[in-house]
Amino acid sequence: MFVSAGVIGCSTVGDTSSAEEEQESGSQDMSVTFESGAYTMVGIEDKAGFINGSTELPVNTPNKYMWHVWGEDVEGRSFTVTGKNLDTGEEETLVDSELAGPNNEADAHAPSIMTFPSAGEWELIVYVGDNQFETMRITVADS
């Protein structure tokens, strides 16, 4: 069984003005896919994203995703991505790794295996070190 996933919103921690404006207006017009190197990524350009050339993701099947992070002094720091299905309240740690060196025009990267165990709107929170770095939302739906 496959699911379709697409980012429906993103926010940058520390950039509260645009996040507040987006919440007030209900706008979800932020860029959700971008090119870096030879790859299409899902996330926030020049901040954080993972390689995903297709919007079809298998349910309950671990898949490899290469995360990329842009920023100063991120290489060698811990890297965690948590996810919460906003429809069911289900929470998962999706990635628990360490950031390696530059790759695909990003300042650091981390290979990962993520599994989305249920359909719905998922909020992904990206941590670098102990600090929340970015937040994005994706929709995982049965195809």
- Unreliable stretches (pLDDT < 50, length at least 5) are 1-31
Q: Helix/strand/pairing class, anyone?
A: mainly beta
Number of helices in the DSSP assignment: 1
Widest sheet, order of strands: 5-1-11-10-7-8
* Main sheet record: 6 strands, antiparallel
Fraction of helical residues: under 10%
Report strand %.
over 45%
Q: What is the succession of H and E elements?
A: EHEEEEEEEEEE
Task: Give an account of the 3D structure.
With 143 residues, this protein is mainly β. The chain has 1 helix and 11 strands; from the N terminus they run E-H-E-E-E-E-E-E-E-E-E-E. Strands 5-1-11-10-7-8 form a 6-stranded antiparallel β-sheet. It has a 5-stranded antiparallel β-sheet with strand order 2-3-4-6-9, with no helix packed on it. A hairpin with a 2-residue loop joins strand 2 and strand 3. The longest helix is centred in the first third of the chain and has 10 residues, at 16-25. The radius of gyration is 14 Å and the shape is globular. The termini are close together. Mean pLDDT is 79; it is low at 1-31.
Task: Name some characteristics of this structure.
single chain; 143 residues; mainly beta; six-stranded antiparallel beta sheet
Element layout with pairings:
Blueprint: E1 2-12, H1 16-25, E2 33-36, E3 39-44, E4 48-51, E5 56-58, E6 63-69, E7 78-85, E8 91-98, E9 108-114, E10 120-128, E11 131-142
Antiparallel strand pairs: 1-5, 1-11, 2-3, 3-4, 4-6, 6-9, 7-8, 7-10, 10-11
In short:
The protein is mostly beta strands and 143 residues long. The protein is 7% helix and 55% strand.
